[in-house]
Amino acid sequence: MSNTLINKYNVPGPRYTSYPTVPYWSSNEIDGEGWMEAVKHSFSQSNLEEGISLYIHLPFCESLCTFCACHKRITKRHEVEAPYISTLLREWHLYRELLSETPRIKEIHLGGGTPTFFDPIHLEELINGILATAELAPGFEFSFEGHPNNTTKEHLQTLFDLGFRRTSFGVQDYDSRVQHAINRIQPFERVETVHKWARKMGYESISHDLVFGLPHQGLESITRTIELTRDLKPDRLAFYSYAHVPWIKNVGQRGFDDSDLPSATQKRELYQRGKKMLQDLGYIEIVMDHFALESDSLHEAMIGKTLHRNFMGYTSNKTQLMIGLGMSSISDSWHSFAQNSKSLEEYSAKVNSGQLPIFRGHSLSAEDLVIRRHILNIMCQFETSWKKASQQFDHLEKSLESLHEMEHDGLLTIDYEQEKLILHDHARPFVRNVCMAFDLHMLKKKPNTRLFSMTI
């Protein structure tokens, strides 16, 4: 891949975990009442066939990692745990009152923040409280994110006994200079310990999160990190491009200077080195940001063209209704999105007064739904088609015309006879750029301020 192409297409752009992307939601189109109707409609359509997904946001962290852009609350006061668990269960009860029958849960994911900040007893109370008023769908999958420094054997055993079989550990990089810059000090030996505990206990899928493009990161550090990862052989890896967005309020990406970051070209070299090493180890690249062993369900979903993408990233499970619990969580009914209050105090006050804590959302138009499907196809399958009338929208011809230059650059093929667009394998780094050509909200209202990280 030439530096010319990297420089040409390395522009700010969304990661497309949704369409429309959050900055373009028309919040005035959906309120608490509108969201409740959307949930009931989606639930009635999908519960018996698919079940529902739950994303539960556990926001507390004991220290601030300065590469992180998640919504979190930094504290060492663990007395915050019990009140937050109680509020989560009250929020779940509010949703249960909406649903016409017993929900069948297909997927639960605990994200953060740091889920393993919480005592295992409180995590057990949370999951048992939810499952007491629900059923498990066939093939259900429970997963959680663990911080290697505070994940204990008791955490792993408690969650395993509750049905969790997937876990991911945030590694980022093993280089001590990089770790100090991002305030995430964790030696390989600690990751090795918790990884081996999980493997021995019977976890079926263990993932490690690695990040390229971090401050002071070079080819030597990324090479050593993957060499150490090789010794543990996780089932899948998230290999993310660092999203530098310090202008976003409360992100905390201020622990280093911009000059400490690799250039766009250097960042690409880090990715190429990492990709080559992972492929040599038997990992297969899953569209964008992810690698998996051939035996992993993520790879099977990609081959079977059932891969899905949502606010949690790529997943082998798909449900029409995903309910987000906790401060800042985002819910998806397919036809609508809703986000909870990002302030812990506001979130708690609303739930404890008997209200769903929605502060913004978006109701998708018929055009939004068509474009959402195209963007999902591109992000998950590297291709999309407009053969059927239901796959067409008014701006389609202009969207395709805007991709002619990328086609000229050898990144994709637009087959007008077969009415199909196909991205070439080496175009993986530019997949977000291709989606941007379909993003009518962005095309109609280009941002005047910085909203997104760079695409490459």
Report what the structure shows.
The longest helix has 18 residues. The strands form five sheets. Strands 9-10-8-7-6-5-4-1-13 form a nine-stranded mixed beta sheet, sandwiched between helices. The chain has two domains: 349 residues, tm_1862 like domain (pyruvate-formate lyase- activating enzyme), CATH 3.80.30; 79 residues, Arc Repressor Mutant, subunit A, CATH 1.10.10. Helices cover 36% and strands 21% of the residues. Helix 3 runs parallel beside helix 4 and helix 5 runs parallel beside helix 7. The radius of gyration is 21 Å and the shape is globular. The protein has 16 helices and 19 strands. The chain is α/β, with parallel strands linked by helices and 456 residues long. Strand 4, helix 4 and strand 5 form a beta-alpha-beta unit.
SSE topology:
Elements: H1 3-9, H2 32-46, E1 52-58, E2 60-61, E3 73-74, H3 81-98, E4 104-112, H4 120-131, E5 135-146, H5 153-161, E6 164-172, H6 176-181, H7 188-201, E7 205-212, H8 219-232, E8 236-241, H9 264-280, E9 283-286, E10 290-293, H10 297-303, E11 308-310, E12 313-315, E13 322-325, E14 330-332, E15 336-340, H11 344-352, E16 358-363, H12 366-381, E17 383-385, H13 396-401, H14 404-408, E18 412-415, E19 420-423, H15 431-436, H16 440-444
Parallel strand pairs: 1-4, 1-13, 2-3, 4-5, 5-6, 6-7, 7-8
Antiparallel strand pairs: 8-10, 9-10, 11-12, 14-15, 15-16, 17-19, 18-19
Helix pairs in contact: 3-4, 4-5, 5-7, 8-9
